[in-house]
UniProtKB/TrEMBL annotation:
Annotated positions binding ATP: G184, G185, S186, T187, Q188
One GO CC term on file: Golgi apparatus
Record-annotated active site: E154 (proton acceptor)
Protein name: nucleoside diphosphate phosphatase
Any one GO molecular function term: nucleoside diphosphate phosphatase activity
Organism: Sander lucioperca
Length: 412
C-alpha cells in the first residue's frame, strides 16, 4: 500500500512513489491506509496515518477507529442491505484523510471466520457488493482489495502488529515476540523460530517467509479452524458445527454444574444445556471430555516454552473474569493460573471475591484453555503477556495487514 507522498502540488497522476531524492528536503511525509476488518460480530474500520522517513520503517502517527454491528454475514440472504453500513464507514475515512490524496489511499476489506463459514456463493455476493462500493469510492481500489482472509494470514498480520508496536520488527538484532490468539471460531499461534531444527521438523505449511521493511522474516504459524472457544464449547458439549436436526438441541455435559440447566445460542441455534446428575467429579470428567475433543488435533510447537508470547482475545477475557488481570491494563499470567482456576471454578468455588454471577461455561472455558495451551507446547510455569493495546494502539491484525498490503503495492 506504499503510495504517493503528500505534496502541496499533487498532480492526480499515477499512483506511483515520487523519486526518492525529492523527499530529502521536504521533511516528514505522510501516507494513509484504510483497513476494514469484517468479523463475525461486526465490521470495523481502521484508518492509519503513517509518517514516512527516508530509509526508516514507517511510524504510526495516528489511528482512527469506528465499528458497526452486525457483521457482514448477517446480510447473507440480502447482500444489498450491507451497503448503508459500508458507506457510513467510508464517510469516516473521507473526513479523516486529506482530499488531495484520496485517490492514492488504498481501501482494503478482509473478512475473517464469519464469512469463511458461509456457503461460497453467499460469501461471494457479499464481497462483490462491497467491491462495487469500493470501486465507486474516491479511494484506491484494486482487484485484491476485498477478500476473505486466510486464517494463517490473520496470524501473521497479528504477529506483525505486535512486533511493530513493541519495536522489535525494526531492529534486525532484537528477538521478536510470539502471538497467541483465541477467537470464537479459530485459534492462531505465530512466532519466529530461533532454532533451524524447528523449521526442518515442522509441517511444511506451518513455515512462512515474507518481506517486511527490507528484512525477510520466517515464522512458524498455524490457524486451527474449529478450535476457537465457541466452536470448542459446542464440540465439548457434544454438538457438531452443522445445524442440528429437529429436536436434537439439548446438550448434556459434565463441564456444567450438576443439575443446572440453561440456554445458549451459537450460530443461530438456541441449545438447551444441562449439567449431569450430581455426584460426578466435575473437573476430572470435564478434563477427560476436553482432552478427547483436542486429541491429536494440535501440533506441539517445539520452541513455545522458550519464546516470549503475547496472548489475546478470549485468553485475555477469561483472565479478566478471574480477576487475574485488570481489564484496562492487562498483565502477565502463568499457564498454571488457568489450570488452577479451572480446578477451583469446576469444584464450585467463586473464581474471585469481586465476581458478579459467573458464566455457567467458565469451568468448561478454563479447562479448554488450559488443555489447549499445554497441547500447543506451553508448560505450566510459562508466563504469557496479556494485552489489548500496546502503546495505546489496538493489537488487532489490521495494522499488520495494512503493512503487508503496503509492501505488495510497493512491489507492483
Amino acid at each position: 500500500m506504499f503510495v504517493k507522498r503528500h505534496y502541496a502540488a499533487t498532480k492526480p497522476e499515477a499512483h506511483r512513489l515520487p523519486p526518492r531524492h525529492r523527499t530529502a528536503t521536504a521533511g516528514p511525509s505522510f501516507q494513509y491506509g484504510i483497513m476494514f476488518d469484517a468479523g463475525s460480530t461486526g465490521t470495523r474500520i481502521h484508518i492509519f496515518k503513517f509518517q514516512i522517513d527516508n530509509k526508516e520503517a514507517p511510524k504510526l502517527a495516528h489511528e482512527t477507529f469506528r465499528a458497526i454491528k452486525p457483521g457482514l454475514s448477517a446480510y447473507a440472504d440480502d447482500p444489498q442491505k450491507c451497503t448503508a453500513g459500508i458507506l457510513e464507514l467510508l464517510e469516516v475515512a473521507k473526513s479523516s484523510i486529506p482530499l488531495s490524496i484520496w485517490n492514492a489511499t488504498p481501501v482494503v476489506l478482509k473478512a475473517t471466520a464469519g464469512l469463511r463459514l458461509l456457503p461460497g456463493d453467499k460469501a461471494k455476493h457479499l464481497l462483490d457488493t462491497v467491491r462495487a462500493l469500493f470501486v465507486e469510492s474516491p479511494f484506491l481500489s484494486r482487484d485484491d482489495s476485498v477478500s476473505i482472509m486466510d486464517g494463517t494470514d490473520e496470524g501473521i498480520s497479528a504477529w506483525i502488529t505486535v512486533n511493530f508496536l513493541t519495536g522489535d520488527l525494526h531492529r534486525s538484532d532484537s528477538p521478536t515476540v510470539g502471538m497467541l490468539d483465541l477467537g470464537g471460531g479459530s485459534t492462531q499461534i505465530t512466532f519466529s523460530p530461533q532454532d533451524e531444527k524447528t523449521i526442518q521438523t515442522s509441517p511444511i505449511d506451518y513455515i512462512r517467509s515474507f518481506q517486511m521493511f527490507n528484512n525477510t522474516h520466517t515464522v512458524y504459524t498455524h490457524s486451527y479452524l474449529g478450535l476457537g472457544l465457541m466452536s470448542a464449547r459446542l464440540a465439548v458439549l457434544g454438538g457438531v458445527d452443522a445445524s442440528p436436526l429437529e429436536g436434537s438441541t439439548e446438550l448434556v455435559s459434565p463441564c456444567l454444574a450438576p443439575e443446572s440447566s440453561g440456554s445458549w445460542e451459537h450460530a443461530d441455534v438456541v441449545y438447551t444445556v444441562r449439567g449431569q446428575k450430581a455426584g460426578e467429579p466435575v473437573y476430572e470428567a470435564c478434563l477427560t471430555k476436553v482432552e478427547k475433543v483436542l486429541y491429536r488435533k494440535v501440533v506441539k510447537a517445539s520452541e513455545a516454552a522458550d519464546v516470549d508470547f503475547y496472548a489475546f482475545s478470549y485468553y485475555y477475557d477469561r483472565a479478566v473474569d478471574l480477576g487475574l488481570i485488570e481489564e484496562k491494563t492487562g498483565g502477565t499470567v502463568l499457564v498454571a493460573d488457568y489450570i488452577d482456576a479451572s480446578k477451583r471454578v469446576c469444584t464450585g468455588e467463586s473464581p474471585s471475591p469481586l465476581q458478579s454471577p459467573q458464566s455457567p461455561f467458565l469451568c468448561l472455558d478454563l479447562v479448554y484453555i488450559s488443555v489447549l495451551l499445554q497441547e500447543l507446547g506451553f508448560p505450566p510455569h510459562k508466563p504469557l503477556r496479556l494485552a489489548r493495546t500496546i502503546n495505546q494502539v489496538e493489537t488487532s491484525w489490521a495494522l499488520g495487514a495494512s503493512f503487508h498490503y503496503l509492501e505488495s503495492l510497493k512491489r507492483h
